[in-house]
Amino acid sequence: MVPSPLASAILFHLGPLAITRPVATTWGIMAVLTVTSWLVTRQLSLHPNRRQTVLEVVVTSIMVQIEEVIRKNPRPFLPLLGTLFIFLVSANLSGVLPGVEAPTGKIETPAALALIVFGAVHYFGVRARGPLGYLASFAKPKLIMLPLNIVSEVTRTFSLMVRLFGNVMSGEFVIGLVVALAGLFVPIPLMALEILIGLVQAYIFTVLATVFIGAAVDTIVPG
Amino acid sequence: MDVKLISILAAALAISVGSIGPALAEGRSVAAAMDAIARQPEAAGTISRTLFVGLAMIETMAIYCLVIALLLLFANPYAR
After folding, report:
1. In this structure, what are the phi and psi dihedrals at residue A44, rounded to the nearest 5 degrees?
2. Which chain A residues are within 8 Å of B71, Cβ to Cβ?
3. Which residue, among A35, A78, A84, has the nearest Cα to A59 in the 3D structure?
4. Interface probe, candidates B57, B68, B71, chain A, greatest A C-beta count within 10 A
5. B22 falls in which pLDDT band (50, 70, 90)?
6. What's the gap between Cα B75 and its chain centre?
7. Facing B64 at nearest CB: one of A7, A162, A200
8. Which of A94, A65, A72 has its CA nearest to residue A205?
9. B53: contact with A, CB 8 A cutoff
10. Taking the CB of residue A163, how many other CB atoms lie within 10 A of it?
11. Cα–Cα nearest to A63, from A87, A80, A48, A50
12. Quick check: A162 and B67 CB within 8 A?
């Protein structure tokens, strides 16, 4: 029997908590990203060296992308969305390393990220329009749209989760099947495709989170 | 037929029928985007960003079918 792609292997127990493999991988990626950011931002100067130039290119291009979608000062949204994008890129691409499974290929990591986006949308919406103004926005354009708007809040979070999980997991599943059927070097083109899919899915997740937040702060029409 | 056999058939049916619609839809949207880029190459950035988001939305339908198929195969509540 093939191991289920919906279950994840338990590494060890921390008291009553079972620490699974994707959680440990996530901690590893978080540690690497934190240490790298600390090292890169340690000595910032007006005359950037090579590392700082790369950092500035990454940060400003993410900022430009957010600004093009939200059409507002992107600075308040940059910490969340930039971190989300960089984490997703490293998490999706970590599956290429030997011995590492991409944590986004198990359902709990995309679920947690989608919940973060769900919370952030309401946080930014309430902060931009006030609690009553934000609640009133659910009854637009007509009061009859109220149940549909509430349902769409839940379903779009769900589809955000399922999209990321399904893409990454199905890629790994296909590679596993081809390795089992054909042999060692055959799945290399598939793995290249998997790198592309990982990048595109990280981009799409971030853009959709940006679009949802932009709709909540009322700079773009929700679609 | 027992439940396991029906589940396998239903999983195959779900993924095969469910991928027809998204495939046609993705083809149409990419063709429309190519047409738009050919007419207005200066708007290529905006068009391709919207295209990617739209493709992700369409692809979600096929991914739903995939998840249903996997649930039937690996987490079927009736197969025990």
Report:
1. -85, 140
2. 6
3. A78
4. B57
5. very high
6. 21
7. A162
8. A65
9. yes
10. 22
11. A80
12. yes
Rounded to whole angstroms, the Cα distance separating B48 from A103 reads 28
Per-residue buried b or exposed e for B41-54, using 16+ beta carbons within 10 Å of the residue's own CB: eeeeeebeebbebb
Q: Is B52 on the interface with A (CB under 8 A)?
A: yes
State the sign of the Cα–Cα–Cα–Cα dihedral A202, A204, A206, A209. Answer: negative
User: Cβ–Cβ of A207/B53 closer than 8 Å?
Assistant: yes
Residues of B in contact with A204 (CB under 8 A): 52-53, 56
pLDDT score, position A221: 52
Q: Is the pLDDT of residue B8 over 70?
A: yes
Q: What is the pTM of this model?
A: 0.85
Q: Check: CB of residue A134 under 8 Å from CB of residue A76.
A: no
How much is the average pLDDT of A122-150?
A: 87
- Cα(A5)–Cα(A208) distance, rounded to whole angstroms? 25
Judging by beta carbons within 10 Å of its beta carbon (0-12, 13-18, 19+), is residue A111 exposed, middle or buried?
middle
Omega of the bond leading into A3 within 30 degrees of 0 (cis): no
Tokens of B10: 């239903």
Q: Nearest-CA distance from B45 to chain A in Å?
A: 11
- Yes or no: say if A105 and A198 are a contact pair by the CB < 8 Å rule: no
3-state SS class at A169: helix
Determine the average pLDDT of the residues in A116-124.
94
What average pLDDT does the segment B58-65 reach?
Answer: 85
Judged against a pLDDT cut of 50, whether residue A68 lies above it is answered with yes
The nearest CA of chain B is from the CA of A45 a distance in Å of 32
Per-residue pLDDT at A3: 64
The answer to whether residues A216 and A122 touch, using CB atoms and an 8 Å cutoff, is yes
Q: Token pair of B78, please?
A: 């009736």
Q: Looking at residue A221, what DSSP letter applies?
A: -
